[in-house]
Q: What sequence folds into this?
């Protein structure tokens, strides 16, 4: 008798919005792009935002879409979802969640249970309304609370977390801060202006030297 296996469909959307506020969206994008830049030269680090992760084969009812997840040992290629059983069974090592205004404690507890059960090594939950960051690190198979979290350096990412009154800040190992698109644009504009001012100063100095019959190119 021929045995047929029914094809299992793994949806690429859970029907939920990525964010329900501008601040939540900004933080998700900033963390995701910051992690992308951090590992841009490593082809085997995959970073995703709001991508459904299915940890168990043939169980499309078990999934979670972290706001940001970082997976070491997997290529950067595009995916419609992350099927762990098709990815050498490598679970995301780092997960971030930005708490939204509509997230109740039951929902957050379920997310923690999922990450605890399915192998996340580091889990970071930030509440922008309270400016509160909670982190967990897997110790002896269980996610344990990180204390203190302010100034904590992620073992996997190497980034440092700071909690000034203005909100969460994340710093790369080289000391550079994770920046939003608008902050990056402001930084580029500032650098452009500085370069322009330096060029103008050099031109004025060269003109003064020529007035003194000194060739600036000979100096």
A:
């Amino acid at each position: 008798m021929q045995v047929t296996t029914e094809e299992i469909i793994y949806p690429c959307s859970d029907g939920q919005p990525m964010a329900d506020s501008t601040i939540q969206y900004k933080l998700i994008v900033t963390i995701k792009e910051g992690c992308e830049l951090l590992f841009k030269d490593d082809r085997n680090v995959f970073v995703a935002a709001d991508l459904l992760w299915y940890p168990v084969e043939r169980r499309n009812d078990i999934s979670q879409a972290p706001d940001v997840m970082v997976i070491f040992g997997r290529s950067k290629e595009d995916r419609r979802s992350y099927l762990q059983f098709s990815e050498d069974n490598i679970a995301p090592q780092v997960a971030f969640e930005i708490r939204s205004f509509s997230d109740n404690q039951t929902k957050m507890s379920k997310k923690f249970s999922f990450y605890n059960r399915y192998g996340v090594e580091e889990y970071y939950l930030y509440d922008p309304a309270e400016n509160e960051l909670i982190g967990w690190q897997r110790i002896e198979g269980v996610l344990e609370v990180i204390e203190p979290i302010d100034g904590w350096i992620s073992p996997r990412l190497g980034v440092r977390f700071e909690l000034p009154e203005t909100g969460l800040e994340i710093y790369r190992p080289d000391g550079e801060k994770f920046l939003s698109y608008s902050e990056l644009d402001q930084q580029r504009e500032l650098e452009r202006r500085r370069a322009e001012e330096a060029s103008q100063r050099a031109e004025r100095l060269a003109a003064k030297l020529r007035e003194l019959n000194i060739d600036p190119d000979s100096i």
About this structure: Residues 22-179 form a domain with the tt1808, chain A fold (CATH 3.90.1570.10). The radius of gyration is 24 Å.
